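Input protein
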Amino acid sequence: MPETIDAHLEAQQVPLIAALAELVRIPSVCDEGGGGYPFGEPIDRALRKALDIAGELGFRTHYEEEGYYGWAETGEGAEMLGILGHLDVVPPGKLENWAQDPFEPIEKDGMFYGRGTQDDKGPLLAAIFAVKALMDAGVKLSKRVRFIFGADEETLWRCIKMYKENEETPTMGFSPDARFPLIYAEKGLLQLTLEGSNQSGLRLSGGSAFNAVPDRIVYDGERQDELGKKLADLGFAFERKQDGIEVRGKAAHAMIPEEGVNAIARLCLALRATGVQSKAINFIAAEIGEDPYARRIFGDCQDEPSGRIKVNVGMIKLDETERISIDARIPVTISKGKIVKELSNAAGRYGLKYSEFDWLAPIYLPLETPIIEMLMKVYRQLTGDEHSQPISLGGATYARAFENCVAFGALFPGEALTEHQPNERAALDNLYRAMEIYAHAIYELTRPS
């Protein structure tokens, strides 16, 4: 590594944050087909902006003709190091829970606030500007480094599926979309719906995404006085409003539902206790409730590499039909078929039918895999952290899209996870530290074989 790299990395800090501000200002939430683009005009705008940023830094760029993905590349050689990130973000939720406009970033007390600062615009740019520092330091890359920009990560990964159909596969790679030191296992990610005819007459809707713990839901049906009393008896937070009773929870990512409070589950528990019932309400209250591991259905479902199953009731809708949307993170050694069978059997007892929405198979790389050994060596040399070990993750990153890929950063051990939550933010010093780690890692991974 050139001795001047520290100066070149420091020189990238201001342009990194300026570029991040540009991307955060684009509300790149999925809008199916909006403006004639596969995932909506804002996501397409963010994709084009990221490619413009990379192009101005000296990368060769490519925009997929329909707007499914893009890539930016530098270096020479037959082998390719792929760095995979995404430009779409989850919806901001209730704006009153934010201290500022989620799409108007601000810097305060060493933090940079805005939707996407942590997931995944900030980490992705940190890696891009790390390569720019290497370029400015005169490093000759003996492998190509290609940044693959996804646009559909928070929903169905159609961007990556399209990339794999049309583009070159990386020889190795990483995704800056998780935690340091690195992720060696990612659970299977199953998103599903349970649906049945609505014979209750109830109308109810709540939640915004499979992969987000719902932090509120409004009930405007019958027996509201009894419901309010039951909610109070159960110690569940709620507020009476003109349009009904709003049950309060706490938002969290579906990979860590135990850190949130599921407002849908709490409403269903209270409704069932007051005598207001339906297939969906009964199923949620009796079979899952507030248990993020759904032990009534799956028992003690866990394994040594990746821990417990995690289950999140992300959405509910009762109109002509009753529909529950569930996100399940399945341990890497547990078969999907086993989980589907047990869930289908439980749902069937309530007149609900299982339907798969999306499935991402797990990944599990042995710790002696060369890319893991190299990335761990770089991380430990630069941080002095000899204690932290490679970890398993309940989240899904693009690392599982290709062989010989892992998730690597950008959050440090103990750093607050704020993705998918109000007031999402990145600690600037840590973002700069991540940029330094990425520069050294990319340097080592692109040395001649």
